[in-house]
Amino acid sequence: MSAAVARARGRGAVACLVVLLGLGTAVVAGGAAASRAAATPRLALLLGDSLTTESEPVFAPPPGWGLKFDAWPGMAPCDWLAGVHPNFFDDMKRHPAAVVIETAGNDETRCMKVNGALPAVGSPAFLGRYESALATIISVAHADGAAVILLAPPPMIEPRVDTAIKAVLAWAQQTQHVEVAWTPRLAVALFGTFTEVLPCMHFETAKLGCSKGWIPVRTLNTKYHVHFCPAAYEFTARFTCSVYSSGETRWARATMRLLRHLP
Q: Which residues contact 99 (CB under 8 A, 6 or more apart)?
């Protein structure tokens, strides 16, 4: 073999090696990019009032999900639209894959006023305020490609509130074609009805509040037992519970299970 042929073959081998190394680098880089994309969690935006605020520390998103909260005690749906920044429109700039809405009938904030006065709970004006705000939220979320889940709140014993919220849920299903989830409500209810206590879960010990097989799931020492923290004096300044709350745990777990079933 001549020296010229040998040199040509050597150059060809080097060229092939360079090409193969380049392809290998491209494959590795492509795989890394795909891995990073797969690792990026989908975002769930949770809109809520005091029930979501107090439960926020115990929400644990399923694999592949991250959470963003827009919740504060006393909020009505119109507050998510008209509130200080960041509000719902700011939150939507992050393009959440799901918008989960919890509202339990609050009616005392400024945006709920009609002609300068707060409407009676369950009145046409009250329902109009709720439905208008929720219709905007649902429309914007759907237009951005987000799934929308409206949570049925826990059973309420305050007069008119449970009836008013059920009317809003029925409206949402019938006119907005949005999913209404009842499982979180059932998780803190006794056969679907209001209760202050439920049978302890297998891990709930006496140290966590289990007594004779039962544990509080609603706040015991308040008039209407709206919240989950066992006692009103156990709320912190941030309106979270300073002790274990079975109601919060059951509510948060049932809500997070809903995300597992989204495509």
A: 44, 45, 47, 137, 141, 146, 147, 148, 149
Instruction: Copy the structure tokens of residue 258.
Output: 């809903």
Q: What is the pLDDT of residues 114-129, one digit of tens each?
A: 999 999 999 999 999 9
**Helices marked H in 99-221:** 124-143, 161-175, 183-187
Buried b (16+ CB within 10 A) or exposed e, 224-233: ebbbbbbbee
pLDDT in tens, 196-229: 999 999 999 999 999 999 999 999 999 999 999 9
d(C-alpha 31, C-alpha 47), whole Å = 36
pTM of the model: 0.84
Structure tokens at 37: 């994309």
Q: Which is nearest to 184 in space by CA: 130, 103, 243, 244?
A: 103
CA 229 to chain centre: 19
CB atoms within 10 A of CB 190: 14
